[in-house]
Design brief:
Layout: E1 10-14, H1 19-30, E2 34-38, H2 42-54, E3 63-65, H3 76-87, E4 92-95, H4 110-138, E5 141-146, H5 159-179, E6 184-191, H6 198-201, H7 224-236, E7 241-244, H8 249-258, H9 260-267, H10 270-279, H11 282-293
Parallel strand pairs: 1-2, 1-4, 2-3, 4-5, 5-6, 6-7
Length: about 290
């Protein structure tokens, strides 16, 4: 663990108004980072900034609030310039903003597919491209992306979401190779179930309707604080890819990674798929799968 290396770094976090992004802001502020916090909810970002300042970790000048609608791709270059005018540099870009989805593929309209890809895939690609010239000029930089376990394996009820995360995994792998000679690092973080507002805002089979589900505190999920702490370790150590999840989801991921043929044959059995359809919850599907094979 090299968390001391983060002190003084300028870290730009998107999706910083709640969940993992908010917790990561607190964690990195405690590690001595200067922060750029972005999301659409400016008032909430200001509250987070004040909480950090009240905790004695940062001053007013150490935290820049930059409200942004990431779907406005044309605004990304000017937003980067705004950050550079304040801090004169960006050390780490954390593409954390995103939106989940719960709908069977056969019922999911193309409109939802398109919006999920724009939010989870095209917007972080666009923002990263806007920051890359600065990183290349400095011959230093670090791109971090909050992916998902769904970025490694598909799951019933999350077709569009899994597609968006898988696409980013491939893009990040290519970026990592291309940027190696420029001393630019790339980290993909794949969390499992984490307590957040993700299911409240998740897409359904209608682009105009969110799932609106509040997570049950009794569920087996990682806290956003714990997840953020592990992400900070991954950033400090410049790891290429990390899987951040409790069991049994982590075990499920290892099974798919190292025994893919066996895992796929088992998960494709009708019993598993049918029970997954009832909940449209990837984590319940994982649990059902593990109980079945054990």
């Amino acid at each position: 663990v090299k968390l001391g290396t983060l002190k003084g770094k300028v870290v730009w976090i998107t999706g910083a108004s709640s969940g993992i992004g908010e917790s990561l802001a607190y964690r990195l502020a405690a590690d001595g980072c200067r922060l750029v916090l972005s999301a659409r909810r400016e008032e909430r970002l200001q509250q987070i900034k004040q909480t950090i300042i009240d905790g004695g970790y940062s001053t007013q000048e150490d935290i820049l609030i930059v409200p942004i609608d990431l779907l406005q791709f044309n605004s990304h270059p000017s937003t980067v310039q705004r950050v550079l005018q304040h801090f004169e540099k960006i050390d780490i870009l954390v593409n954390n903003a995103g939106r989940s989805q719960r709908s069977l593929i056969e019922k999911c309209p193309m409109e939802v597919d398109r919006e999920v890809l724009e939010i989870n895939t095209l917007s972080p690609i666009s923002l990263t491209k806007a920051v890359l010239p600065h990183f290349i000029e400095r011959k230093a930089g670090h791109v971090v992306y909050t992916s998902s376990v769904a970025g490694k394996i598909g799951s019933p009820g999350l077709g569009s979401y899994a597609c968006s995360k898988h696409a980013m995994q491939g893009w990040l792998d290519s970026l990592r190779i291309e940027m190696y000679t420029h001393n630019i690092h790339v980290t993909s973080v794949c969390p499992g179930p984490v307590f957040s507002e993700a299911l409240v805002h998740a897409f359904t089979d209608s682009a105009d309707q969110s799932l609106g589900v509040i997570m049950d505190p009794s569920e087996r999920r990682m806290t956003s604080e714990r997840c953020a702490s592990l992400i900070a370790v991954a950033i400090a150590n410049r790891l290429d890819e990390v899987w951040v999840s409790p069991h049994p989801e982590l075990l499920y991921l290892y099974l798919f990674q190292y025994f893919p043929s066996i895992a796929k044959r088992l998960v494709q059995k009708k019993k598993i798929v049918d029970r997954s359809k009832l909940s449209l919850n990837m984590y319940l599907a994982y649990a059902v799968f593990l109980v079945y094979i054990i």
